[in-house]
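Researcher: Here's my situation. A collaborator sent me these components and asked whether they could plausibly form a single complex. I don't have experimental data yet, so a predicted model of the whole assembly would be a useful starting point for our discussion.
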Amino acid sequence: MANVLRNSAKFGFSGVLSQLSIHSRHGRECVSPCFSLQQRNSSTSPKIKVDLDNSTGVAVLRMQSPPVNSLSLDFLTEFCINLEKLEMDKSCRGLIITSTLSKVFSAGLDIMEMYGKSPERCGEFWKAVQEMWLKLYGSNMATIAAINGSSPAGGCLMSIGCDYRIMADNPRYSIGLNETQLGIVAPFWFKDTLVNTVGNRAAELALELGLLYSAPDALKIGLVDQLVPEDQVLSTAQDTMSKWLAVPDHARQITKSMMRKQTIDKLLSNREADITNFVSFITKDSIQRSLRMYLEMLKSRKA
Amino acid sequence: MANVLRNSAKFGFSGVLSQLSIHSRHGRECVSPCFSLQQRNSSTSPKIKVDLDNSTGVAVLRMQSPPVNSLSLDFLTEFCINLEKLEMDKSCRGLIITSTLSKVFSAGLDIMEMYGKSPERCGEFWKAVQEMWLKLYGSNMATIAAINGSSPAGGCLMSIGCDYRIMADNPRYSIGLNETQLGIVAPFWFKDTLVNTVGNRAAELALELGLLYSAPDALKIGLVDQLVPEDQVLSTAQDTMSKWLAVPDHARQITKSMMRKQTIDKLLSNREADITNFVSFITKDSIQRSLRMYLEMLKSRKA
Amino acid sequence: MANVLRNSAKFGFSGVLSQLSIHSRHGRECVSPCFSLQQRNSSTSPKIKVDLDNSTGVAVLRMQSPPVNSLSLDFLTEFCINLEKLEMDKSCRGLIITSTLSKVFSAGLDIMEMYGKSPERCGEFWKAVQEMWLKLYGSNMATIAAINGSSPAGGCLMSIGCDYRIMADNPRYSIGLNETQLGIVAPFWFKDTLVNTVGNRAAELALELGLLYSAPDALKIGLVDQLVPEDQVLSTAQDTMSKWLAVPDHARQITKSMMRKQTIDKLLSNREADITNFVSFITKDSIQRSLRMYLEMLKSRKA
C-alpha cells in the first residue's frame, strides 16, 4: 500500500482512488523514497529561480518547489509572470527549463488545487494551466526542456510545450501523459500537443493507456529528443541552445508560429468551454469523494 | 495462370481482370493451396462465434466462414449484430477478433456481393461495410485484432479498426489495403484510418502502390503493433487485453473518442454520398464485365 | 570566408548576409570547388532535356543548367512547359527527374530573380515557383526524383513534390528546406509538403533550424526513400518506376489525388495572397540590401 501511495504521489493530478493501484503495475521506481503530502510553507520564497545570461541571451528557469514541483496556482502564476518578463526582454532569446530537485522535473498539477475548492477557484486554477501552455507553446524564445527527473502529466505537458527536450539517461525517470490511468482525461490541447510531437498512433496508444515511458522508451517514440548522462543535462541544453540561437530569430519565430498556430488557436477559441468542462468534472461529488479518500490516506501515512 | 488466380483469390474485393496479374509480382505465397470460388452453403450455421468470459469481461469473436472469411452481406450483418450485442452488454469490456481458419484472418470484401447485383443491393452491401467500420472504430470496448493469417483489403480495414494489432510472426502472411493493385480505390475512410495508424507518408506509399506487407514489414511501418509465434497470437491478445482493461473504462473511452471522433464524423456526414459513389462505380459495365471474366476463370479453374 | 561563400552559393534562395556564416557551421562539403556567380549565357540552349521512351512510357527529365540548376524564371518556365507536354501525352505514364551536373541536383531558387527586380517581375517569378510545385505535386504521372547531388531549398521542394525519392548514397550530398538558416521563411505549402513527407515533428525541427540533412540522415527521417550508389541512381529509378507503372494508372491517380488534394487546394485558394506576401517581403529595403552585399561578395570573389 505504501508503495502505491508513493507511486501515486508522483501525480499532482490524480483522480479516482480505486484506480491508483493500477499505476503501480507499471513498476516504475518511486521518484523519491520520502514522498508525502506536500509540506506547504506559507513563506514567500520563490518557487522559481531565473538566471539570464546577458552575454548569451539565454535564461535558465529553475523550478525549486519541493518536494515535486507540483503545479499549484501559485506556482503557475509565478511561472507565467517569469515567462512573460523574459518574453518582453529583448536581450533574452532562449529559455532552458529545468528543476533543482532531485529525481523530479515536475510531478504535474497539484491535487490540492482541485479538492474542496469552489468552482470559481477551480476555474482560476485551470485558466492558469492553460496560460502556462499557451505562453510556452507559443513562445518567441527558443525553448529547451532540460528534464533532469521524472515528468508525468502536467510535467510532460510542460516538456512538450518546449521546442526541444533533453532528458537524463536514467531508466528510473519516466515521462508521459498518464491521466487516463488515474481515471482522468487529458484535454484536447494536451492531446494535440502530444500528436504534434509523436504522431497520431503513438499518441493514441500513450493516451488511451495512460502510459508513462522510461527515458529510453520516451526517446524511441520521439517524446524526448535526446538522452544524456544526468550530470550533463543542463550543459547539453546550453550547447544545443547555441545552435538554436544561430538561426535568425525572426525566421525561426515565424516558422514556429506557422507550425503551432493552428493548435494554439484551437484552445484560444475554446478556452471558456474548456474551463467549464474541467470545473464541472472536477467538482463532481464522486471525484471529490475520491480526492478526499486519497488525501486522507496520504495524511494517515504521514502520521 | 493458376498462380495468378490463386493469388487474386485472396481478395474479396477485386476489380479489373487485366490487372490481376500485377499482384502476383509481389510473390506472396498463396494463403491456401486450394482457393476457389467460395463453396457457398445456404446453411444457417453462424459465420461468427462469440465467447464472452464473464469473469474477465473479455469476448473472443471468431470468424469461421470458410474458405477465407469473405465479408459478404450476411457475414457483415452477423458481425454487426454480434458487435452491437457485446457493446450493449455491460459485462463485456474487451473484444478480441480472430479467425478459426488456417492461414487467413479475412480476405476482405466478397466479390459475389458486387457482381450482377442491383444498385439497391450493392448499396445495402456497402452500407454494411460502413457499419462494420463505424461500430468497430468507434467501439467503447477495448478491441484487439489477433491476426492469425493473411488480412488483405477489408481484412486489413477490420484490423486497423481495432485498438491494437497482434499478428502471427509468419512472413507468408500479409496485410494491407491493396485495392489499388486491383484497379480499385480505397475510399477516404479506409485512407483516413490508415493515415491515423501509420502516418501520412507510409499511407501514401501503401495506398498508391496497393502494397501488401509481410508480417515483419507490417510491424516495421506500424501497421501491426506486435508479432508473436502463430500459436501464441490469441494468448498474447488475452494478456494484452488485461493491460487495456486495467485502465478505467470511462477515461479510456473518452480518450478514444477524442482521438477518433473526427475521422468517424467525416464518414457519418458523407455516408450517403459514399454509398452513391460506390454503387455508381461498381455497377459500371466495364467493371461488371471484368468481374464476370474473373468469376468465369475461377469457375473454369474449379472444373 | 571563401568557404562561407562557397557554401552559401549552394542556395539560390539566400537572404541575409550576416547569417550566411551560420550555414558553414554545418560543415557540409561544398557541392563544387568552383562555385561562383552563375556564368549566365544568353544562349537559347535548353536548360532541360527530356527523353521519353515510348516502349516503357517513362520520360527522363534532365536538368542541365550549369553551374547548379538554379531555379530561375526561365528555368521554371521551361520546366513547366515540359511537364505540361508530358502530362498531356497519353503515352507518358512516368517521369524521372534528375540532373546532368556533377554533385548537384538543384541548388534551389535563383537569387538573381529576387535582386533589383520590380514587384511585378518578382510576382511573376513566385507564380512560376508555385506553378512548378502545383504541376509536380499534382501530376497524374508517377514521378520519381533521382537525386544525384545536393538538393537544398527549392531543390528539396522539387524532390518532395515527387512520388518517390532515390538519392545517391554520398554523405557529402545534402538535402533540406534550409530557408530559415538564411533568414527566410519557407512558405506554408513548402511546410505542408514536408509535413506530409516526414511528419509534423521532424518537419518542425527541420524548418525551425533550417536543417540540411546528409543523404544518410535524410533517409533516417524519411526525407528520401532510398539510397543507392551514385552510378545506380538513374537505373534504380527506372527499375522502381516499372513497379509504379504496374499499378493501374486510374486507381493510382485517384488515390494520389485523395492523398494530396487538400494540400494543393490550400495553395490554390491562397495563391494571390501567397504571391503578395512573397513580393512584399523580398522587395523590402533591408532584404534587398542584404542581397546586394551578398552578390557583391560573390563578384569580388570571382575577380
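Model: Some features of this prediction you could bring to your collaborator: Chain B touches chain C through 24 residues (CB under 8 Å). The beta strands of chain B are 48-53, 58-63, 94-99, 142-147, 151-152, 164-168, 174-176, 213-214, 226-228.
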